Amino acid sequence: MKEPKPCIRAFLRRLLPLLLLVFFVNIPFHADAAVTSTDDIRISKGGKFVHISGQWYKYLQKDGTYAKDCLMNINGKIYYFSPKGYRQFSWKQIGNDYYYFGTYLEGYMYKLRWLKKPEGTYLLKKSGKRATGWLNYQGHTYYFDKDGIRASGWRIINGKKYYFGTEDQGYKYTGGWLYYKNRIFYMKKDGTPTYGWATISGNRYYFDQNGRAYKGHHKIDGIDYYFSSKGALLYSGPNLSISSDCAVLIDAATGKVIYNKNGNKKHANASTTKIITYILAVENSPASLNNRVKVSAYAASQEPTKLYMQAGDSFKMKDLLYSLMLGSHNDTAVAIAESVSGSTAKFADKMNTRAKQLGCTSTHFVTPNGLDNGLNHYTTASDLAKIARYAWLHARSFQKVVGTSSYSFRSTQGRSYTTYTTNALLGTTPGVKGMKTGYTNKAGYCFAGVVKAKSGKTYISVTLGASSSTARWNDSRTLLNYAYNNL
């Protein structure tokens, strides 16, 4: 018998797999469904699932027919049957939306549940639709791409950058710190990173164009800044060791800030308050400063440090200015305030108004002497530097008074007094010309100082919140010496 020709053998080889597939394996070819809407869902009146072959099942109804070309509610679950009656499973498109009908052993529509697949995580909504776009769910905000895959990690959506956590999280991070691969971000309430300068919980931070907080030393707009390992600004300017809570160094002529450590942080400032008390005293007195200041019982009752003036006594304003600025006498400050405004409360109003006029934005004074126990009395190093700068440049006789080591005078009643400066740097530190000390338990040790540098320029320093008198003088000396030798 002759063997078949080569062309016939090739045809039979191609035909055989098809014959086997159709007649022996018996797998249906047209299992895809034709349902186009979820608006019409039939209710089953009873029946049972029948395994046809492989992964395919049908639903035999009570009337002996198979469910076909429909969505059907069977015992509270939605099933999808093709025109030939095959139960559908996995992803199916109905209209313009996608739905998931479980594994072939399940075959029912997933609703209100997460679906984790190798390619990503999906959310099936209450309607069964695959979620896309933005969605708030169970207290978090999620984003799903056009294929329904939940976003994770960093994503740029409509030109904005967001972070959606790990693969297992997948929700938008909002309103808080984010620590990511040794980098620090601060996510705003809308979920986007913070950029540029920001004040958070009282600390200053700088975030680069990628939203990362600077750490260590960086130069921004030509100024040196030093940040902590957690991103908080430590100080700007020269690399100086300053332990006080807050400190600034400014050019007295221009107001330019040379050094800044927590310069805008609200802080009690104790008797450095008396600088603005001095300003108001001379602005509300005649040019001679010979106006009389009478001492009330309230003024005389002030706690030390004090002049120990007596109720009913009176003094020339020019003499009390030395008592105010050298000896830092609390009773003197109250006597001056009452002389100017009639009461310390009215005088405090003048203080706060004048402070605002001088450019202060975070200052609130309650007392003329800086006593602050139980009181909301504060300023900032930057604001206090503005006040000190104005006093140095414009307040009558201020430079002469704060540059004096001691001063003697008498009351109208003939009692003699001598007051001595509390400024330990005056006469001991090159170029220092004077200014004002302060201390309370709340404020710590404070000082505003002024130095005339070798260059002939004048600079003003402020330190607030030093832990000891020694620390105050060390910090102030560091700032003023730097200015004296380098500026």
Architecture overview:
- It is a single chain.
- This protein is an alpha+beta fold.
- 22% of the residues lie in helices and 31% in strands.
- The protein has nine helices and 29 strands.
- The chain has helices spanning 6-25, 274-283, 297-300, 317-327, 330-341, 344-357, 381-394, 398-402, 469-486, and strands spanning 41-43, 47-53, 56-61, 70-74, 77-81, 91-94, 97-100, 113-117, 120-124, 133-137, 140-144, 154-157, 160-163, 176-180, 183-187, 196-200, 203-207, 216-220, 223-227, 233-236, 246-251, 257-261, 292-294, 314-316, 406-410, 416-420, 432-440, 444-452, 458-466.
- Strands 22-21-29-28-27 form a five-stranded antiparallel beta sheet, sandwiched between helices. The protein has a three-stranded mixed beta sheet with strand order 1-4-5, with no helix packed on it.
- A hairpin with a 5-residue loop joins β25 (406-410) and β26.
- α2 packs antiparallel against α4 (317-327), α2 runs parallel beside α5 and α4 (317-327) runs antiparallel to α5.
- The tally of helices reads 9
For the record, give the distance between the C-alpha atoms at the N and C termini, rounded to a whole number: 114 Å
Estimate what percentage of residues fall within beta strands: 25-35%
Largest sheet: 5 strands, antiparallel
Radius of gyration from the alpha-carbon trace, in angstroms: 41 Å
Mean pLDDT over the full residue set = 92
Tell me, what's the shape? elongated
- Tally of DSSP β-strands: 29
Strand order in the largest sheet: 22-21-29-28-27
Helix content: 10-25%
The stretches of 5 or more residues where confidence is low (pLDDT under 50) are 17-31
What is the structural class? alpha+beta
